[in-house]
Design goal:
It is a single chain. This protein has 195 residues and is of the alpha+beta class. Helices cover 34% and strands 22% of the residues. It is built from 6 helices and 11 strands. The strands form 3 sheets. Strands 1-2-3-4-5-6-11 form a 7-stranded mixed β-sheet, with helices on both faces. The chain has a two-stranded antiparallel ribbon with strand order 7-10. A two-stranded antiparallel ribbon has the order 8-9. Helix 2 (26-43) packs across helix 3. The longest helix is centred in the first third of the chain and has 18 residues, at 26-43.
């Protein structure tokens, strides 16, 4: 995790504290790595098509590489010290690699527990534009992309309505799963790579 994130501390409105992830806290790092790995596998159109034997050894190094160069903010419920969400991002260029909020906290604002959502608080504290204007999302899930309707191929009848994803709320954001690969390749070229 970038040292820039270690400098960032912000109090979220309501009951949460937003702070930089602690790279020396192995429990915190394990939580971040584990939830990102598991949730992207299960909730992305791409990841869910892969077996664990293919996905985990293939994508875990990607996550570790992104964590090493990114800033990470965590949202903590201070009365019990529970980590309820986190944001993995870069400011130059403006990238969001991953956002995670525990299920129990995903509708906290709607239920009146918080004045704004956990992910909104994390983005606001990050320095990224709140409307995600020009921000590239690299790891998109169905929550971001939405899902198409499920249609019976023989009758054409819609069996299940499609959903709009969060991307519809942020039309100026960019979805590009390759920007981190291209950037990594450029960095390797600039520094030389051992092959």
């Amino acid at each position: 995790m970038s040292t820039d994130a270690a400098q960032r501390t912000d109090a979220a409105p309501g009951a949460l504290t937003i702070r930089a992830a602690d790279p020396s806290d192995t429990q915190e790092l394990h939580f971040i790595l584990g939830t990102w790995r598991q949730n992207y596998w299960k909730q992305s159109p791409w990841g869910r098509r892969l077996t664990a034997a293919v996905y985990i050894p293939g994508h875990e190094p990607v996550i570790q590489r992104l964590l090493a160069r990114s800033q990470v903010l965590v949202a903590v419920e201070p009365s019990v010290g529970e980590l309820v969400g986190y944001l993995v991002f870069e400011l130059k260029p403006k990238l969001i690699h991953w956002t995670y909020v525990k299920d129990a906290w995903r509708r906290a604002r709607e239920h009146g527990f918080l004045p704004e959502g956990v992910a909104t608080s994390l983005v606001r504290a990050s320095g990224l534009p709140a409307d995600l204007d020009g921000v590239t999302v690299t790891h998109a899930t169905f929550a971001w992309l939405g899902s198409p309707p499920l249609t019976d191929k023989s009758t054409g009848r819609e069996l299940k309505r499609g959903t709009d994803g969060l991307q519809a709320r942020y039309p100026r954001a960019i979805t590009n799963p390759y920007v981190w690969v291209n950037r990594s390749n450029q960095e390797e070229g600039a520094h030389g790579s051992a092959r």
